[in-house]
Design goal:
Elements: H1 7-10, E1 20-25, E2 30-34, E3 38-42, E4 46-49, E5 55-58, E6 78-84, E7 87-92, E8 97-101, E9 110-114, E10 119-121
Antiparallel strand pairs: 1-2, 2-3, 3-9, 4-5, 4-8, 6-7, 7-8, 9-10
Amino acid sequence: MHPFPPANELAFVLNAPSRLVQVAINATSLRLVFENGCHVDVALNLVYVRPDGTEIAYDVEWYREKPLEFHNLLEQDAVSLETEGLEMRIGFSGGGALRLFTDIGPYEAVAVVKRGGPEFYI
């Protein structure tokens, strides 16, 4: 749809408790669910950044994707959130991170939602 908003507008994802408690996989999207009532839906590609800095790209429909390696982020706190243009990066307490992407097009690629609060469709 459009670039991500400034990181401070999405910082509610980091409000305690910011632990990642569920990764839900659907055929064409993935949902990251946080303990604080926030969730992030991902329809486009995602990159897992391991704590050692190596990256693993997930860039096809989720039902065709290879096994997920970022399950080890479960029960870790989201500790940082950065946005720049078409990319958002969420850093976790164990040193890993997820890089999420959007595009310029008619459909949303990422949704960042706080239950009962702000909703961003990007």
